Write a sequence for this structure.
């Protein structure tokens, strides 16, 4: 069994869907130590090393960040804190008056497997919507990935996996596991 460690059950659902047929995915619902660092890769590697002694067998974690061009990459590594404090309405307010609404959503996965930490990254360019559209969770209603025909993650439903930052990092994880998972 491969374990995903997170406090976010939405992420678990997405990974379970995307890894089906490759590995059975268990969920360890837990908070863990996250260093404050600008680079998401550094964040996940440090956290995975910290978690290793507590989890038996292979596991992975994931960290994401939304980097908005006209806000100088904000909220980036602080996305979770900013979402909790001001939510989508706060982001839309900050973006008022900006013509350039481009942003990048980044996902970094750290997999602890056979004594090593492997990293898989995914990045998707898109735009911040003018208003919240669709369901989903977190920033889903306000992020429009390029290639989706103008639909937000929230409006895409399960098709989000085909366009999302997590879809891309998970594709790399999937390819890695397809060669090595038994
Ligand atoms: P973290 O990876 O949980 O630290 O995510 C940072 C912030 O981005 C949190 O507020 C998440 O809710 C949000 N977030 C991460 N991935 C997604 C996504 O796929 N859709 C919507 N919001 C996301």
């Amino acid at each position: 069994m491969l374990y995903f460690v997170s406090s976010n059950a939405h992420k678990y659902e997405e990974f379970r869907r995307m890894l089906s047929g490759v590995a059975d995915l268990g969920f360890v619902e837990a908070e863990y130590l996250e260093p404050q660092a600008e680079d998401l890769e550094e964040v996940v590697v440090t956290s995975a090393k910290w978690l290793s002694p507590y989890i038996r067998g292979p596991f992975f974690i994931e960290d994401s960040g939304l980097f908005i061009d006209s806000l100088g990459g904000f909220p980036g590594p602080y996305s979770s804190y900013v979402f909790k404090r001001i939510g989508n309405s706060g982001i839309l307010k900050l973006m008022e008056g900006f013509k350039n609404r481009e942003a990048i959503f980044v996902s970094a996965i750290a997999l602890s497997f056979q004594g090593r930490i492997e990293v898989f990254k995914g990045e998707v360019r898109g735009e911040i919507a003018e208003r919240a559209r669709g369901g989903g969770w977190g920033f889903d209603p306000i992020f429009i990935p390029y290639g989706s025909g103008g639909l937000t993650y929230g409006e895409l439903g399960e098709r989000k996996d085909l366009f999302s930052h997590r879809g891309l990092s998970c594709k790399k994880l999937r390819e890695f596991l397809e060669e090595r998972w038994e």
Observations:
- The mean pLDDT is 97.
- The helical segments are 9-18, 40-51, 79-94, 153-156, 160-163, 165-180.
